[in-house]
Write a structure and sequence with these properties.
The protein has 10 helices and 27 strands. The protein is an alpha+beta fold. The strands form 8 sheets. The protein has a 7-stranded mixed β-sheet with strand order 2-1-5-6-15-14-12, with helices on both faces. The longest helix is centred in the last third of the chain and has 26 residues, at 425-450.
């Protein structure tokens, strides 16, 4: 009997870990902190990750261990950089190593500050982002919080949702509809138009980039003749998803993950607006869930194609066959997979160019209840060759779905053509009329020759 309490105590931690299952890419997180930075400043952030089942390892920029690769394999699934001002890093944290980490389907989360180093400035350019000059901060005379804006005034902005937020699967409805503001203290960046780059948060209308320490209030950007970032052009958070579905999140504020702004209460802006607390914890969790592949993940669970009225999957079809194509899609919601519902999923039947493009219609839920089955009915075009069923679904904030399967399309066999083709009746009639005309002409010509009197006399003389 004493064994039962022991087994119950042993099973409890396992059940807790299973309930807080991390993303499909794994639960190994490396956090890189600035030299001299105390991890206790981010205790709320750490606790939220641990509660979701992640194992956190800390490291400083110049330390050589733990390495992020071992025998050319990733040792960490996700890397979080809370070290914006670090100027030099260990070799395994070089930009080339980070790109290799992304190539191997790892994920990155990077935070910046007004004193971001050139190391990160160059790295951000590879993702079509341009950070503001060193020492530049985002300021606002209306939305700033005086009690938190130190040492310089107007540096902590209170941005009320959904203003400034982009409605994408990266952000939850709870965050978008939160009555509490997002507190931001950091630096803005400019984002170029890129198909893989998604803006998440931009500055409010009354905010602009400024260098508090510049002489006579003139920033480097103004002195160089460049336009100062302000309003919606000043991006605060941007997300990038590579073609292999690795994810990178750029956050212009390291303090967004810190306890000071997360736990702030009694917030009052210069414009007189009052709030009980901030929504930083909600936004922080949304960003980490997306970056760590906990949200915005769509996967293919099943693919079928067969002739209309049949169930057998074939690798060869005939021209003008009626085909049914089915694909099942699931999305991650918390710690479980649920059906992914959309009305803009398309199927292409291609041979070099699409010969058929049609919308896949939600048909039913899979038997296990985790997938939405889409289907399309179409007729094979009148052209033989090697064709490809292709579903290429790419939307901001969702993993890219690209499913391909090849089949051969053959012409009719010689004994499969119809005996008579209705469209050829004019040709049939022309051939028959030609034959009939020839027979009639031959009969008339021969008959008229033997009936001639002169011809009969010649035949008699010959006899």
């Amino acid at each position: 009997m004493r064994l039962i309490p022991f087994l119950a105590a042993l099973a409890l931690p396992l059940l807790t870990l299973a309930a807080a299952a991390p993303g499909p890419e794994g639960n190994r997180v490396l956090v890189v902190l600035d030299e001299g930075q105390d991890a206790l400043e981010f205790s709320e952030f750490y606790d939220s990750l641990k509660a979701r089942g992640y194992n956190i390892t800390e490291r400083r920029p110049k330390e050589s261990s733990p390495e992020i690769f071992s025998y050319d394999e990733r040792k960490f699934d996700h890397i979080v950089f809370l070290s914006p001002s670090a100027k030099s890093f260990a070799p395994d944290l070089s930009p080339q190593s980070l790109v290799e980490h992304l190539r191997k389907s790892g994920n990155l989360l990077l935070t910046f500050s007004p004193y971001v180093s050139e190391h990160w400035r160059d790295f951000a350019r590879e993702f079509s982002l341009e950070l503001e000059p060193r020492g530049t901060s985002l300021l606002s005379s209306f939305d700033s919080v005086p009690s938190l804006s130190s040492p310089a005034p107007h540096q902590v902005l209170a941005i009320p949702p959904p203003a400034g937020l982009t409605r994408t699967p990266i952000l939850s409805n709870v965050t978008l509809n939160s009555p509490h503001p997002i507190l931001f203290r950091g630096q803005a960046h400019a984002a170029e138009t890129h198909p893989l780059l998604v803006p998440v948060l931009h500055a409010p209308r009354g905010a602009w980039s400024f260098e508090p320490e510049s002489k006579e209030g003139v920033s480097e950007a103004e002195d160089a003749g460049d336009e100062v970032l302000k309003g919606s052009r000043a991006k605060l958070i941007s997300a990038f998803q590579t073609r292999n579905n690795a994810r990178v999140v750029f956050v212009g504020s390291t303090d967004l993950f810190g306890d000071e702004l997360t736990k702030a209460e009694g917030i009052e802006t210069l414009s007189g607006k009052k709030h009980d607390r901030s929504s930083n914890a909600l936004l922080r969790d949304d960003l980490t869930k997306w970056a760590f592949q906990e949200s915005g993940v769509v996967k293919v669970t099943d693919v079928k194609h067969h002739k209309e009225g049949a169930t057998e999957v074939l690798d060869r079809y005939r021209i003008k066959d009626d085909i049914v194509y089915e694909i099942a899609l699931s999305t991650r919601e918390g710690d479980k997979w649920v059906p992914f519902v959309a009305h803009d999923v398309q199927l292409e039947f291609t041979m070099l160019d699409p010969h058929v493009r049609t919308t896949l219609v939600p048909a039913r839920i899979s038997e296990d209840g985790t997938s939405q089955v889409y289907e399309a009915h179409f007729r094979v075009p009148d052209r033989h060759g090697v064709f490809t069923f292709r579903v290429n679904y790419k939307r901001d904030g969702l993993t890219f779905v690209e499913e391909k399967s090849q089949v051969s399309v053959t012409p009719f066999r010689h004994d499969e053509y119809p005996r008579f083709i209705s469209a050829a009746w004019p040709y049939y009639g022309g051939a028959l009329s030609t034959i009939a005309g020839f027979l009639v002409f031959s009969a008339l010509w021969l008959g008229s020759r033997f009936g001639d009197e002169g011809a009969k006399k010649k035949w008699k003389k010959a006899e």
